[in-house]
Specification:
- Keywords: ATP-binding, Nucleotide-binding, Transport.
- GO terms for molecular function: ATP binding.
- Pfam families: ABC_tran (PF00005), OB_MalK (PF17912).
- InterPro entries: AAA+_ATPase, ABC_transporter-like_ATP-bd, ABC_transporter-like_CS, ABC_transpr_MalK-like, ABC_transpr_MalK/UgpC-like, Mo/tungstate-bd_C_term_dom, NA-bd_OB-fold, OB_MalK-like.
- There is one protein chain.
- The protein is an alpha+beta fold and about 425 residues long.
- About 25% of the residues lie in helices and about 30% in strands.
- The protein has two domains: about 230 residues, P-loop containing nucleotide triphosphate hydrolases (Rossmann fold), CATH 3.40.50; about 190 residues, RNA polymerase II/Efflux pump adaptor protein, barrel-sandwich hybrid domain (OB fold (Dihydrolipoamide Acetyltransferase, E2P), Beta Barrel), CATH 2.40.50.
- The protein has eleven helices and 21 strands.
- The strands form five sheets. A six-stranded mixed sheet has the order 6-7-8-3-9-10, sandwiched between helices. It has a five-stranded antiparallel sheet with strand order 13-12-11-14-19.
- Helix 2 packs parallel to helix 4 and helix 3 packs across helix 4.
- The longest helix is centred in the middle third of the chain and has 18 residues.
- It is globular, with a radius of gyration of 26 Å.
- The protein starts with a strand and ends in a 7-residue tail after the last helix.
- It binds adenosine-5'-diphosphate and magnesium ion.
């Protein structure tokens, strides 16, 4: 096994640069997911690791060896594609053993390796079948078997589950993860599906437009997305974004409904910021702000509600059944300990909670305007969650009872001046 090092890698097709300086470190035994919208360069990067695509500039290393000029066969990697690319005229066993035969391995060793892979993948009863006699999931397993028999240093997967139906995708997801836990082979897994990335990977690399936007553990990306793109991409349904301003340490939403005291300093002189709230961090709360229900989606285990709060569309996700109906007016409140703030111009996350944000690779592009915001938020120190919550509640006109903290009551609308000072509307 081996780690994979990708250093300032670029790729151009003619005048078009599709990878614009990518740095990724994949540790030995790690499962790394490359995720991003279609066309962002995931497959190109994977194919470059495999050696199927030349490198315009930069360096790719596998197991400490620079492989820029090493042909694919000598890289000791195995790739699994979305289109399983099985040989239709060969049985499952032959398909799995073919690369070993090409490599000149003796027949008994091939048989042994195929048998072991078939065992791991539960393919034993299918070894004599042709691909056309298999289901999609079984074909996918054969494709994986073909990779496993080679016992490579690195597995490369390119959207291996995209051709499967939703249910099978979920079970294959778990199978691949279990396989990784068992074999511990270093894995780079490409997907456009953030749920796949979140559930399978030790580390996620979010790409956009040939650049890495952020890399980190699934929960790091969920809890502290470094910009609005990552914030919107990770998590389903997507994060709600609400335009507003921060003046004198107080956030007020563009629609004037939501107010919140905060340590965060906006980058722009006019104080414009964007508030991010995940749907699962919004709840129906009699002490919250008014919103009109537009659409209610029930899955049985959860309820998704699309709302209009003062002209801003919001999605709320409840882990229980809500009986609300379209047209109804409800009150909703965010979990104030889980708000995100972003700079509207750069999209970058603004200071906040557990700081300090390590600059990601994309920071080398020169977005240093993050620094003053960070300093300010550190200088101001932290605010305890309890204090924050009461401040936050106060900001939207709710007061917590001093003697019975479980009780809240409305104070009526907040000061007019705040609502008036709001220029920006929601994006
Ligand atoms: N052989 C090629 N020639 C020219 N452009 C290409 C070639 N392969 C990929 N591209 C372009 O590179 C970009 C990234 O493609 P790709 O890596 O396949 O994206 P992803 O896998 O993230 O969907 C796309 O805009 C695609 O059109
Ligand atoms: Mg692709």
């Amino acid at each position: 096994m081996a780690g994979v090092t990708i250093e300032n890698v670029r790729k151009s097709y003619g005048a078009v640069e599709v990878l614009r300086g990518v740095d990724v470190q994949v540790e030995n035994s790690e499962f790394v997911a490359l995720v991003g919208p279609s066309g962002c360069g995931k497959s190109t990067l994977l194919r470059m690791i495999a050696g199927l695509e030349g490198i315009s500039s930069g360096e790719i290393g596998i197991g400490g060896r620079v492989v820029n000029n090493v042909p694919p066969k000598q890289r000791d990697v195995a790739m699994v594609f979305q289109s399983y690319a099985l040989y239709p005229h060969m049985t499952v066993a032959k398909n799995m053993g073919f690369s070993l035969k090409l490599a000149g391995l003796p027949a008994d060793e091939i048989a042994q390796r195929v048998s072991r892979a078939a065992e791991i993948l539960d393919l034993r009863p299918l070894l004599d079948r042709l691909p056309k006699q298999l289901s999609g999931g079984q074909r996918q397993r054969v494709a994986m078997g073909r990779a496993i028999v080679r016992d490579p240093q690195v597995f490369l997967f390119d959207e291996p589950l995209s051709n499967l139906d939703a249910k099978l995708r979920v079970s294959m997801r778990a199978e691949i993860k279990a396989l990784h836990q068992r074999l511990k082979t270093t894995t780079v897994y490409v997907t456009h599906d953030q749920v796949e990335a979140m559930t399978m990977a030790d580390k996620i690399v979010v790409m956009r437009d040939g650049l890495v936007e952020q890399q980190g553990s699934p929960l790091e990306l969920y809890d502290r997305p470094r910009n609005m793109f990552v914030a919107g991409f990770i998590g389903s349904p997507s994060m709600n974004f609400i335009g507003g301003t921060i003046k004198k340490r107080r956030f007020v939403s563009g629609n004037g409904l939501l107010g919140h005291d905060t340590d965060i300093s906006p980058m722009a002189g006019d104080g414009a910021v964007i508030l991010g709230v995940r749907p699962e961090h919004l709840s129906i709360d009699t002490s919250g702000i008014e919103a009109t229900v537009l659409v209610v989606e029930q899955t049985g285990s959860e309820t998704t509600v699309l709302l209009d709060a003062g002209g801003t569309r919001m999605t709320l996700l409840a882990r229980e059944r809500l009986t609300t109906v379209p047209g109804e007016t409800v009150r909703i409140a965010p979990d104030y300990s889980r708000l995100h703030f972003f700079d509207p111009a750069s999209g970058l996350r603004l200071g906040g909670d557990s700081d300090v944000d390590e600059p990601g690779p994309s920071d080398t592009k020169g977005n240093t305007s993050m620094a003053p915001a960070r300093r300010t938020s550190l200088k101001n120190g932290r605010t305890g969650p309890r204090k924050k919550l009461s401040q936050a509640l106060e900001a939207i006109g709710i007061r917590q009872d001093r003697y019975r903290p479980e009780l809240y009551y409305m104070r009526g609308p907040g000061p007019k001046t705040h609502a008036k000072s709001v220029g920006a509307d929601s994006p």
